[in-house]
Amino acid sequence: MADILQLARPELRELKPYSPGGYESGLVRLNANESPWRIPSDNTERGLNIYPPPRPLLLRRLLAEHYGVIEEKILVTRGSTEAIDLLIRGFCAAGKDQLLTCPPTFDMYRLYAGIQNAEVLEVPLLREKGFIIDPKSIVNRVTERTKIIFLCSPNNPTGQSIEHGDIEFICQAVQEKILVVLDEAYQEFSDKQDFSALEEKYENVLRLRTLSKFISLAGVRCGVVIAEPKLIDFLSCILPPYSFPTPSIELVLKAFDKRSLNIGKERVQVLCTERARLKKELMNINDVKKVWPSDANFIFVETLNAKNFQETARQANVLVRTFPDQPALKNFVRITVGRREDNNKLLQAF
Ligand SMILES: Cc1ncc(COP(=O)(O)O)c(C=O)c1O
Questions:
Q1: Are residues 223 and 343 in the same domain?
Q2: Distance between CA atoms of residues 336 and 234, nearest Å
C-alpha cells in the first residue's frame, strides 16, 4: 500500500511542528510570556491567563472513548468546518489541485476550496433518483490532480444517507490515490450505520464528526477528525498550537458526563419523532410539492415558491433556510426540526 501522506502537499510534509513552552503542574511558568494573574470574572479551572494546552489531550481521550477508537485516531478541531479547511490546505496545492463534491451539499467545501484556490469538480446528486450520489460518475470524473472527495452522509441539505456500498465502491476505486472525507455531522439522527468500518478498512478514508448537532454544543465549536494516526499526526502538524480554547475544553469535558449524554440521546429521539410528525404535516400543506425523507435534524422540502414560503414562515416569526444562490434549488426550503411548539408555530402559519 502506497503511503497516503504522499498525497499531501510535499512542502508541508517537511514542515517541523511548532514546539510550545512546557507546562508542568506545580512549577512556576516563566516560559510563555503570559500574565501571572487571573481576571476577576475568570471561573475556569485552568485559568484564562495561561494558554490552553497545545492540544486538548484530555478531551481527545474522552472523544476517542465516545467514538470507540484509539486516541491516536482523533484530532480535535474548532468545529468540523476547521477540519474541512485544514484538509483542503494540507492536501490541495493552490492553483493546481482539485477536490470533488456532490452538490447540492454543504457549501463550506466549496468556500474553503475557493479560499485555497483549489479547483472544485462537481458531480451533482441524481435528483431524478431522489438526490442520491452517482458513484460511477464520481470515479470517472477524478483526475491525477484530484486530492479529496467530500461525501456528506446524511447530506446537508437533502437529508438522506448515502448507501454503504456506493461509498465503498468509491473508496476502493480511488484508494492510494485520493482522500475520501466522510462528513457525518448528522449521523446521530440516523438509524443507519456510520462509516467506521470503511474508515478502518481504507487508509485513505477519514470521518468528520461534530458536537454542534446532537449534543447541543454548537457554541463551543468542537469538531472531530477520525482517521489513521499518521494522517492525524500530519493534520496536527499544520493545525496551530493552542487553537482549542480553555472554556471550550472545560465545557465539553463537563458535558460528556453520563447524565448529559443521556439527555442528549433523549433529545435526539424527541427530534426524530418530531421529524416524522413535521414531515407528515408538511405534506398536507398546499404550498408544499414534495417532502424528502430525512436522516438528519432537518427536512428538505420542495415548495411551489420558496420565497413565498419563507415569507409566510417569517410572518409567524419563524426562519427557514432557502437557497437563492443555487438555481437548481430555487424552490427548495430546508427546515430544521425544532421543539414541538416551534414546529407548530411554523405549521400554523400555513
Ligand atoms: C454537513 C456539515 N458538516 C459540517 C458542519 C460544520 O459543523 P461545525 O463546524 O459546527 O462542527 C455542518 C454545519 O452545519 C454541516 O452541515
A1: no
A2: 36
C-alpha cell belonging to residue 64 = 476517542
Nearest CA to ligand 1 atom 3: 185
Distance 32 CA to ligand 1 centre (A): 34
Which pLDDT value is given to residue 84?
98
3-state helix, strand, coil in the chain (%, to 5): 40, 15, 45
Q: Output the domain CATH number for residue 53.
A: 3.40.640.10
Judged by DSSP in three states, 166 sits in: helix
* Interhelix angle 340-349/258-283, nearest 10 degrees: 20
- Render pLDDT for 251-273 as a digit per residue (tens, 0 to 9): 999 999 889 999 999 999 999 99
Same domain, 134 and 24: yes
**Minimum-distance ligand 1 atom for the alpha carbon of 210:** 11
Same domain, 318 and 220: no
List ligand 1's pocket residues with C-beta within 6 A: 79-81, 106, 152, 156, 183, 185, 210, 212, 218, 223
pLDDT for 115-169, tens place per residue? Answer: 999 999 999 999 999 999 999 999 999 999 999 999 999 999 999 999 999 999 9
Q: How many domains is the chain partitioned into structurally? A: 2
pLDDT at site 21: 77
The pTM for the full model equals 0.96
Residue 82 pLDDT greater than 70, yes or no: yes
